[in-house]
Amino acid sequence: MLTRHTIETVVESALAEDAPWGDLTVELTIPVEATLETVLSAREPGVFAGGPLLLEVFRQTDQRIKIEGLLAEGTPFVAGDALARIAGPARGILTGERVALNLLQRMSGIATLTSRFVAAVAHTRARIADTRKTTPGLRALEKHAVRAGGGSNHRFSLSDAVMVKDNHLAALGAVDGPSTTAALRGLRDRAGHTASIVVEVDRLEQLEAVIAARPTGILLDNFTPAELAEGVRMIAGRCVVEASGGVNLDSVSATAESGVDVISVGQLTHGARALDLGLDAVTA
Questions:
Q1: How many CB atoms lie within 10 A of CB 176?
Q2: CA dist 283 to 39, 87, 280, Å?
Q3: Which of 8, 23, 26, 31 has the fewest other C-beta atoms within 10 Å?
Q4: Where does the pLDDT of residue 177 fall: very low under 50, low under 70, confident under 90, or very high at 90 and above?
Q5: Residues with catalytic annotation?
Q6: Is pTM beyond 0.70 here?
Q7: Cα separation of 271 and 196, whole Å?
Q8: Residue 42: is its pLDDT beyond 70?
Q9: Beta 76-77 vs 46-47: how paired, if at all?
């Protein structure tokens, strides 16, 4: 969740990185009393995300800066649209410009890519979800952007849910059917009835042993659409079925048509391109 504390902390850190001892150019060239009017402009179409960060950047550089017409999170736009109007003390606007754009371009890029994945599976029941493949320190921002694009959030951190992957089973020595079932049942007893437990499998032959342990969900990793459909048939509604691994815009529709409930896509965050936005001065 994108909290007030997170917003303030991220912006403070970004401004400190960009102007650790002040903005030398602004201080030497721009009079203290100078004002500036600007427009945040879209140079390509997309979906907007990051408004709360924009507000916080200019709050921290100069609280006298006014922001009007700010687009709501998740709003689509086309090239040439004005996404916000920013006016006030020129020093504060110029100092915060790059940090604000970096955050908005990154978050809007994620929202835009997510919206394309969501649109590609709209004819199915599948939900598009993110992963933990996020930029360290910016996970809350990037997951917020996924939601702005119409996607869903997977677990936020390792503390949120149990997800047993192949390396976990290998470490437990659970290498065959009975040992896998026993290990997972023991895990359920230790975790308690409220814990969500998802188990990853990479072969159909593993499914029966995992199903017998009654997990909350099963993640089918790197399956073909035909294998996914067979996995859905075998699981038969006994838990949530998730598909993951190498899913892209070309393959996501076929993946969704297999009948899975969730498709987790690492590309939403680690592969999104920053959107082209600009902050343009308004001249008479």
A1: 10
A2: 11, 12, 9
A3: 31
A4: low
A5: 98, 133, 165, 200, 221
A6: yes
A7: 28
A8: yes
A9: antiparallel
Convert the pLDDT of each residue in 117-160 to its tens digit. 999 999 999 999 999 999 999 999 999 999 999 999 999 999 98
Give the amino acid at 23: D
Q: What per-residue confidence (pLDDT) applies to 170?
A: 79
* Closest to 48 measured CA to CA, from 141, 137, 110, 90: 110
What is the structure's pLDDT at 175? 60
Query: Rounded to 5 degrees, what angle do the CA atoms 88, 96, 10 make?
Result: 130
66's tokens: 């006014």
The closest of 116, 135, 128, 119 to 153, measured between CA atoms, is 128
Q: Say how many CA atoms lie within 13 Å of 44 toward its Cβ.
A: 10
> Where are any strands of DSSP class E within 5-147?
35-42, 46-47, 66-68, 76-77, 82-89, 127-129
Q: Which domains are delineated in the chain?
A: 4-118+272-281 (3.90.1170.20), 123-270 (3.20.20.70)
Q: Which residues contact 212 (CB under 8 A, 6 or more apart)?
A: 181
Helices then strands, counting H and E runs in the chain, come out as: 11, 12
* H/E segment holding residue 243: strand 240-244
